[in-house]
């Protein structure tokens, strides 16, 4: 049994059919970030709302250099019909590919299957997995929901913002961080980078331990 994927692993490459034609993941990703998100099956209510929201936010993700890539366990013919429902529901157009994975090959490759769920025809349906993959094809974040629970795509957008801000400024983000809010500057960040990115200086939080490890710096969205 192969090991589960971990943060910082290289995202496995694959070839697949989609409603927009065949793709090879590495060629689709190229130098972009990618959000790969899975769905149990077509023509289900939760999935329809999620795909619609993803389509509504596609331009926001694109501004951040992020491509969308969905997966569902039905075939291309089913996807072609389903996207009509998704577009009508969300008053939008699905312009990103939806992988057809009826044999669960990619779902298995990315550990998207639940521990015990025979599903239809004794084939398990995928859970709602999300992989945020950076431009070097490293997995930077993973989120998994059970099949009945819809995801929050605004939160996924926030996670992308946090990751890209962290990369750009060599910082971390505190609880409930939003773009434009102050960030945490770890104590191991070199002084030269602190001066470069946080010219207004740092706020060191006074804690009972008297240790100066919690430092905030002001920034703005990129």
UniProtKB/TrEMBL annotation:
CDD domains: PRX_1cys. This is Probable 1-cys peroxiredoxin. GO terms for biological process: cell redox homeostasis; cellular response to stress; hydrogen peroxide catabolic process; response to oxidative stress. Belongs to the peroxiredoxin family. AhpC/Prx1 subfamily. GO terms for molecular function: thioredoxin peroxidase activity. Residues 5-165 form the Thioredoxin domain. Thiol-specific peroxidase that catalyzes the reduction of hydrogen peroxide and organic hydroperoxides to water and alcohols, respectively. The active site is at residue 47.
């Amino acid at each position: 049994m192969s090991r589960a994927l971990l943060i910082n692993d290289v995202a496995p490459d694959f070839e697949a059919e989609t409603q927009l034609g065949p793709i090879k993941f590495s060629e689709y990703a190229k130098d972009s970030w990618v959000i790969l998100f899975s769905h149990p099956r077509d023509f289900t209510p939760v999935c329809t709302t999620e795909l619609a929201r993803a389509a509504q936010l596609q331009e926001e993700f694109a501004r951040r250099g992020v491509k969308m890539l969905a997966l569902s366990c039905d075939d291309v013919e089913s996807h072609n019909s389903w996207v009509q429902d998704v577009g009508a529901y969300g008053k939008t157009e699905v312009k990103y590919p939806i992988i057809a994975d009826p044999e669960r090959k990619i779902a298995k490759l990315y550990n998207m299957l639940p521990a015990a769920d025979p599903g239809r025809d004794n084939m398990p349906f995928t859970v709602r997995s999300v992989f945020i993959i950076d431009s070097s094809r490293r997995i930077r974040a993973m989120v998994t929901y059970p099949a009945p629970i819809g995801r929050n795509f605004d939160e996924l957008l926030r996670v992308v913002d946090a990751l890209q801000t962290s990369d750009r400024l060599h910082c971390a983000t505190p609880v409930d961080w939003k773009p434009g809010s102050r960030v945490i500057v770890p104590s191991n960040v070199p002084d030269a980078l602190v001066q470069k990115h946080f010219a207004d200086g740092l706020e060191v939080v006074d804690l009972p331990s008297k240790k100066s490890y919690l430092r905030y710096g002001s920034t703005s969205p990129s």
